[in-house]
């Protein structure tokens, strides 16, 4: 089952479980969001178009986060006048997880659990910049012991070989400088 909703002056085709990025909505993370402006509903058997909306149809969701969108650069230039201006803008947007569709005597719900982890935190985890949060064990259950520590102690650390190639080159240069004055002194002695 799917629906076409209107919010923020734009239209979105949604299904239960979809993650939407829409214009900024009021509310905190985890708040329930309802979209009453449902323009169309449909499923495998057919679709119903509203005039202008489908009566009694509602799309429910959970507000995951409110954030700033991608940066848009505004660059102005007048040629041959030395006029250049650069500005930037980040539009505020909200991320919504669609949980249920209701209307026309039918309903569809999403069985998953809504995760309120922000996109910025997921990106930081992917780059290895944020600590990963491990799931806490259930009450009464023992946590598994980590056996990585004995394996690390058993493996000796490898040392990098020292570089000794730079020293002979420096000695070769000093020998050539010393040899040059001797030849010049020998030539002067022959001429005299």
TrEMBL record:
Residues 134-169 have a biased composition (Low complexity). Residues 133-192 are annotated as: Disordered. InterPro entries: bL21-like, bL21-like_sf, Ribosomal_bL21. Pfam families: Ribosomal_L21p. SUPFAM superfamilies: L21p-like. Keywords: Ribonucleoprotein, Ribosomal protein, RNA-binding, rRNA-binding. GO terms for cellular component: ribosome. Belongs to the bacterial ribosomal protein bL21 family. Part of the 50S ribosomal subunit. Contacts protein L20. This protein binds to 23S rRNA in the presence of protein L20. This is Large ribosomal subunit protein bL21. The lineage of its organism: Bacteria, Pseudomonadati, Pseudomonadota, Alphaproteobacteria, Caulobacterales.
């Amino acid at each position: 089952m799917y629906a076409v909703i209107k919010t923020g002056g734009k239209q979105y085709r949604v299904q239960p479980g979809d993650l939407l990025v829409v214009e900024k909505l009021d509310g905190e993370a985890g708040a329930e969001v309802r979209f009453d402006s449902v323009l169309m509903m449909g499923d495998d058997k057919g679709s119903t178009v509203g005039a202008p909306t489908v009566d009694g149809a509602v799309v429910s969701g959970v507000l995951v986060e409110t954030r700033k969108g991608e940066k848009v650069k505004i660059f102005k230039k007048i040629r041959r006048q030395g006029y250049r201006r650069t500005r930037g803008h980040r539009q505020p947007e909200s991320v919504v997880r669609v949980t249920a569709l209701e209307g026309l005597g039918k309903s569809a719900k999403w069985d998953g659990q809504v995760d309120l982890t922000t996109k910025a935190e997921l990106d930081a985890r992917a780059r290895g910049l944020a600590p990963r949060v491990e799931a806490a064990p259930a009450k009464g259950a023992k946590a598994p012991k980590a056996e990585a520590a004995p394996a690390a102690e058993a493996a000796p650390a490898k040392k990098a070989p020292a570089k000794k190639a730079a020293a002979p080159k420096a000695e070769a240069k000093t020998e050539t400088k010393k040899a040059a004055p001797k030849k010049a002194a020998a030539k002067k002695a022959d001429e005299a």
